[in-house]
C-alpha cells in the first residue's frame, strides 16, 4: 500500500492498477477524485482503463487513506494540492501522466497542467468547474447560512443524503447506489475537514491558468454546464468537447462507460494506438 509523505507530514495514499502487457511499458493515467471522495470511487473505471494504462489513483490530503498527518485547522490550498501531486508522482517514479480529474479533481488538474507542463501528456476534465457558480454553493448550503455550516450541522453522511439528487445524481441512480455513495463519503472524511475544503471551493477561479495549458484537453460535460464549457473554449488552445445528455454533474458515475472510453481513446490517440480487446 504506497504512501508518499509531504513536507508538512501528511501521508498521501495512492493505488496503482496495472493490467497492461508487461513488455509494452504502457504510459500512466492518473485518476483524481473530486470533493470529499477518494480514489476508490473510480472502481467502475478500472476494468476498462487499466488494461491499457498503468493507473494511479491518489487520495487527496484529508480524504480516504490520506488523513494521517493532516491538520484540518490549516485548511486547504490549491498550491499544496498541486505540490502533493508532484510528490505522489515522484514517489511512484513516474515522469508524466495522462491526467483525468472529475469535478474538483479536474479543477486541480487545470493548475497542475499549467504549472507542470512536462508532467501532463493530456488533460481530461469531467464536469470540472473553472469556478464554482453561486447557485451550486446555495444548493449545497441546504437552507443553512453556508455550505460549511450545513456540513458542520448535519455531518457528512446526512448532508450527502440531502444533496445527492439536487445536482449530483438523477433519482433513478437507484437506492442502493445512493446509499452506498452517502455511506462511503461519510467514511472518507469528517465534517470539519470537508467544511474547510468547501471554503476553498467557494473561492477558487482557475481562469488565469487556462491559457497556460499546453497539453491537449478533453472536456466531458453534462448539457447543463454551458457556462463552464464556454470558458474553456475561450481560453484553452487545444480543446475537444464532449457533451452528455444529462443535467447532473457526476457523469463519471452516471455514465462510467461513456466517460471512461472517451478518456481512454483521447489518451490513446495522443500515444498513437487504438485500444482494442
Could you please describe the fold and organization of this structure?
The protein is α/β, with parallel strands linked by helices. The chain is 42% helix and 16% strand. The protein has eleven helices and eight strands. The relative contact order is 0.15.
Topology:
Layout: E1 3-5, E2 11-17, E3 28-32, H1 46-49, E4 54-58, H2 78-92, E5 97-102, H3 104-115, E6 120-126, H4 134-141, H5 147-154, H6 156-168, H7 175-188, H8 191-203, E7 217-222, H9 226-235, E8 239-244, H10 251-254, H11 256-271
Parallel strand pairs: 3-4, 3-5, 5-6, 6-7, 7-8
Antiparallel strand pairs: 1-2, 2-4
Helix pairs in contact: 2-3, 4-5, 5-6, 5-8, 6-7
Short description, anyone?
This protein is an alpha/beta fold and 277 residues long.
Portion of residues in helices? 40-55%
Quaternary organisation of the protein chains: single chain
Compressed to H and E, one letter per element, the order equals EEEHEHEHEHHHHHEHEHH
SS element count, helices: 11
pLDDT averaged residue by residue: 96
Content-based structural category: alpha/beta
Enumerate the strands of the largest sheet in spatial order, edge to edge or round the barrel. 1-2-4-3-5-6-7-8
How many β-strand stretches?
Answer: 8
- Beta content comes to 15-25%
Overall body shape: globular
| C-alpha termini separation | 29 Å
> C-alpha Rg, in Å?
18 Å
Give the tags.
single chain; 277 residues; alpha/beta; eight-stranded mixed β-sheet; globular
